[in-house]
Amino acid sequence: MSVDLHVHTTASDGIYSPVQVVKMAVSLGLSAIAITDHDTTEGIKFAKLVAQGLPLEIIPGIEINTEHQGQEIHILGYYYSITDQEFLALLSSLIQARRHRVGKIVARLQQLGYRITLTDVWRVVDGAVPGRPHVADTLVELGLAENRREVFQELLGKNCPGYVPRPKFPPTNAIRHIQQAGGVAVWAHPGMTKADYLLPELIAAGLDGIEVFHPEHSEGQAQHYQDIAEKYQLVQTGGSDFHGYDYEDCLGKPVVPDTILTSLKTRAGQL
Ligand code: AMP
Ligand code: FE
Ligand code: FE
Ligand code: ZN
Asked: Where are the beta strands (DSSP E) in 11-137?
């Protein structure tokens, strides 16, 4: 059986709702999915409700986008308590910071001459945890851009005119908070950051695993991170980073065996 440990829903910047994602996962025959929305547990609750009585385990997940020495580092969390009050308070503050950042991005776009307002963006966000993808979707809806990818390449990606840096929140803090809530912390798609020199610091902070299998990793990179995981005794995880917004973006790919769950649960002290 295979699993997908990296899935986004409409609770953050995914296109499909938790209900839709659960149905897709069941029809693909996956045995477990982790809902890893950015900074929110909302999607997990709905997914768990819908998956009741279905042959699909819903793993509580999270993805926290952090910053370290100018590098964007994404930290995934698994098997933490979704009712941990301190962790929920942290997520609230991160969401607040996201709202603030979106405001700054819209102001920047207005300066650049784009006819976009915050009201337009909040309508597209529709109660989700906001991020740059929603600003991109708004530009598309207003007929000012083609798709998310184009907006990231030309306007909102790093070193682009509309880029606003995220507030400083170090990866070591994300690791600590996830673990304090009883979870395991995993470095998401390290091949996208290309900052292996950070590994010793993250491991010293208690990093539990690295995401070896990810659609943006080449076979060579997957092998490289597999070797690193073995060397440092880190759990090897993987997932599709499904957001649902383009043809290459497929739930359940790359294929990840369910045996990984045993390592993750052991590390989380749940076995
Ligand atoms: P933010 O959290 O607001 O900084 O936005 C980062 C999110 O944007 C990531 O988690 C991805 O979901 C998405 N993203 C990053 N790069 C791209 C891209 N090139 N095309 C589409 N979405 C992207
Ligand atoms: Fe995302
Ligand atoms: Fe990510
Ligand atoms: Zn992700």
From this structure: 32-35, 57-68, 71-78
